[in-house]
Automatic annotation (TrEMBL):
UniProt cross-references to Pfam families, sorted A to Z: GntR (PF00392), UTRA (PF07702)
Highest taxon above the source species: Bacteria
Signal peptide per UniProt: none
Keyword terms, alphabetized: DNA-binding, Transcription, Transcription regulation
Protein name: GntR family transcriptional regulator
PANTHER family according to UniProt: GNTR-FAMILY TRANSCRIPTIONAL REGULATOR, MANNOSYL-D-GLYCERATE TRANSPORT/METABOLISM SYSTEM REPRESSOR MNGR-RELATED
PROSITE patterns xref list: HTH_GNTR
SUPFAM superfamilies reported for this sequence: Chorismate lyase-like, Winged helix' DNA-binding domain
Location of the HTH gntR-type domain: 5-73
Species annotation: Streptomyces carpaticus
Length: 257
C-alpha cells in the first residue's frame, strides 16, 4: 500500500525525523522551498504548510531574510511545584538543567515584572471566582525571566470586594508585596487553606510567542490555579503559560501519616 499521509505531513514528518536523529542538527538550515519542492515533487503551498507544521511544533524558527533553522528544543529547566513553593502565580522552585542528565548547580537569577489594573470580571473568571459577571477585580499581569531567558507569563485576578482599601490591594506593591497569596491574605485576616491546579496545553498567540521566544502556534503548557480560603471561597485565580518544549513541570505529592 502507498503512503496515505498528505504530502505536507510526509514532508514535515521526514524533516522531524532528520532533526530527531541529528541529521539536521540545532542551528542547521532547513532545506529551502525550492529544494523541498524538487525532493517531494510538491507545490509551494504544500511545502509552506509542512514548514508551518515544524514551526508550530517548535522544531524550527524562521529568520527574516535568511531562511528557516532547526530550533534548540533541549529543556532549559524544571519548575518544581509544591506546597512549600512560593505561591505567587510562579508557584514553583526553579531548577536550571546543566544538560540532559540533571539539574545544574545553584538557583537561577529569577526576575519578574508585574502590572496591576482594576477591571470588570469577564464571564469565565467570574465563574472561577464564584462572583457576578462585571464585579470589580484587580488584574495583575506578570512576565518572568530565569537567567535572562523567558520563563513564563501569568495573569492573576483577585476580587476587589476582598482587597479594596487594604494594604494588599496591589500584589506587587505595598508592605506585603511579593509575599504570595497566602501571606498577603493572611495580613487582612483571610486564611488561604488550599489551591487547585488544572494543567493543559494550547497553541501560543502571536503576543505570547514574542514574549516567550517561540513561534505563533507553538505548543504552550498552561496552568490554571485557584486559591480558596477556609470557607471554600475562591480568593484568587491565575492563568500561567510557559513553553512546553523548554520547561518541565514537576509536582511533589505528599501523603499524610
Amino acid at each position: 500500500m502507498g503512503d496515505a499521509r498528505p504530502v505536507y505531513q510526509r514532508i514535515a514528518d521526514d524533516l522531524r525525523q532528520q532533526i530527531d536523529e541529528g541529521t539536521l542538527p540545532v542551528g542547521a538550515r532547513i532545506p529551502s522551498r525550492a529544494e523541498l519542492k524538487r525532493t517531494y515533487t510538491a507545490s509551494d503551498q504544500t511545502v509552506d504548510r509542512a514548514v508551518r507544521v515544524l514551526k508550530a511544533a517548535g522544531y524550527a524558527t524562521g529568520q527574516f531574510g535568511r531562511g528557516v533553522f532547526v530550533s534548540d528544543r533541549a529543556p532549559l529547566g524544571v519548575l518544581v511545584r509544591s506546597t512549600g513553593a512560593v505561591d505567587s502565580p510562579l508557584a514553583a522552585r526553579v531548577q536550571i538543567l546543566s544538560g540532559a542528565d540533571g539539574p545544574g548547580p545553584g538557583a537561577p537569577d529569577l526576575i519578574w515584572e508585574a502590572t496591576s489594573t482594576a477591571i470588570a470580571a469577564p464571564p469565565e473568571i467570574a465563574h472561577r471566582l464564584g462572583i457576578g459577571v462585571g464585579e470589580p477585580l484587580m488584574c495583575t499581569q506578570y512576565e518572568y525571566l530565569a537567567d535572562r531567558r523567558p520563563l513564563q507569563l501569568a495573569t492573576s485576578w483577585e476580587p476587589l470586594a476582598l482587597t479594596k482599601g487594604t494594604d494588599v490591594l496591589h500584589p506587587e506593591r505595598g508592605p506585603y508585596a511579593r509575599r504570595g497569596v497566602r501571606g498577603r491574605f493572611a495580613a487582612i485576616g483571610i486564611r488561604v487553606v488550599r489551591a487547585t491546579e488544572t494543567v493543559a496545553s494550547r497553541p501560543a498567540t502571536g503576543a505570547e510567542a514574542d514574549a516567550l521566544g517561540c513561534s505563533p502556534g507553538q505548543c504552550l503548557t498552561s496552568v490554571q490555579r485557584t486559591h480558596y480560603d477556609e470557607y471554600d471561597r475562591a480568593v484568587e485565580t491565575s492563568d500561567t503559560v510557559l513553553r512546553g518544549d523548554r520547561w518541565r513541570l514537576e509536582y511533589t505529592i505528599g501523603f499524610g501519616g
